[in-house]
Amino acid sequence: MHSDHLVGLDTLRSPFVYCSAATRAMVLRLEKYPCRINFAKGILEARKQTYKHLKHLLKPLPLETPTIIELSPGNCIQVTLFDANHCPGSVMFLFEDEHKAALYTGDTRLEPWFVNALVRSPCLAEYTAGLRAIDTVYLDTTFLERDVVFQTKAEGLKELLQAVAKYPPETIFYMRAWTFGYEEVWTALAKALRSKIHVDEYKMRLYKSLATGAADPAGERGHSGPQVSVDPMAPNLLGFACANAFHEGSLTMEETYSDRPVRIHSCEKGLGYCSTVRDATRPVVWIRPVVCRLPYGRGEVAELGAGGGGEDLNKEADLEVYGPDEVARLRELYVAP
C-alpha cells in the first residue's frame, strides 16, 4: 500500500484486484495528503477516501494458503501469498499451474532469518525437496546494482535503542514515520521507554482497520466482543481483548498517559505537530530513519521513495509540477491588466 505501488489504482477498470486482508483494510481508508489536512483543519466537511469506491473490487486472500482462481472458463491458476517483510499487508505472490511456477516478490527485505523461515513453509516444501522448480522469479532489485550492504532490522533497532538510552528520562522523541513499515520501530521504542506512541487521528484510523471486533475502524464503538486481527502487529499497536479485560495497545491519540507526557510522537507534521512537540517545554529529539549506513563511514542512504513509498504519511509538500507545455498554455490564458 505504499504510494508508488498504487499508481493508477484510483482509475483502474478491472474485475478484481487480489491482495492481502491488511492491504485491503488500509487502502480503502487512505486519504490524499491535502484532503486529510484540509479535513482536519475543518476546510473540508467530509473525509475523501481515495479508494473507497474499490470496496467490491479488492479481494483479500489469506497468507500461505494455496488458492485456485479461475481466470476464464476452464483456465485456472493457483496463487499463494507470502509475507514480504516490508510493510503491513505487503506480500509475495507464488503463481502455479500444473507445469510452471513463478514467484513475484514485489518490494521485499530478504534478511537471513526471513529467508530461512520462508523456505520452511509447507507451501514451498515440494520446491525445497527438489520435486519442483520455480521457473521464474520476478525479484525486487531496487538496490541490487549499488554497493550497499543493508543492516538487518535487529541491528538498526539495537543502534536506535542504544542511542535513545543516553538521553535523560524527561526527553521527548519525535519519530519521523513518514510511511508504512516502521511499526516494529514503534514497538521497540514503546517497550524500551515504557511509553505509548502519540499519533494523529488519521494514522489511528488507518491502523485500527487492522483489527475488528474490539473496536470498529473509526474507533466509535467500545471494546466489546472478540477481536480479529488481519495483521500480526495489530494487537501490539491497538490492544486486544482477553476474557473480560481489554489490554491497551501502544498507539494513542492522547498526549498524556497516567498523568505523564507521552514520550514518543509520530503525529501529523502538516498540522503543526501536537502541543507537546510544538511547545517544547521538554527537550525534543528528532529520530530520522535512514535506509542503511554505508561502510567505512561513507554516510547514509536516505529514503527517497524507492521501495518505501516516499512520504506517504508525512509529506514535505504536495504541489503539482507543471512542464513547459502547461506553462505555455497558462501564458496564453494570461491577459495583462
What is the topological layout?
Blueprint lengths: L16 E3 L1 H7 L5 H8 L17 E3 L6 E6 L2 E9 L7 E6 L4 E4 L7 H8 L5 H4 L7 E3 L14 H12 L7 E4 L7 H11 L3 E2 L2 H8 L2 E2 L15 E2 L4 H5 E4 L2 E4 L2 E2 L3 E2 L2 E2 L2 E2 L9 H5 L4 E4 L4 E2 L6 E2 L22 H10 L4
Parallel strand pairs: 1-2, 6-7, 8-17, 8-18, 9-14, 9-17
Antiparallel strand pairs: 3-4, 4-5, 5-6, 10-11, 12-13, 15-16, 19-20
Radius of gyration: 22 Å
Broad shape: globular
Measured distance between first and last alpha carbons: 48 Å
- Total number of distinct structural domains: 2
Uncertain runs are 214-225, 316-322
Please give the largest β-sheet.
5 strands, mixed
CATH architecture descriptor text of the largest domain:
3-Layer(aba) Sandwich
The CATH topology assignment of the largest domain is Rossmann fold
Q: What is the CATH first-level class name of the largest domain? A: Alpha Beta
Beta strand count: 20
Mean pLDDT: 86
What structural class do you assign from the helix and strand content?
alpha/beta
* Helix-strand topology string: EHHEEEEEHHEHEHEHEEHEEEEEEHEEEH
Task: Determine the fraction of residues in helical runs and give it as a percent range.
Answer: 10-25%
Query: Per DSSP, what share of the residues sits in E-state strands of 2 or more residues?
Result: 15-25%
> Please, how many helices?
10
Strand order of the largest sheet: 3-4-5-6-7
Protein name: DNA repair metallo-beta-lactamase domain-containing protein
Keywords: Exonuclease, Hydrolase, Nuclease
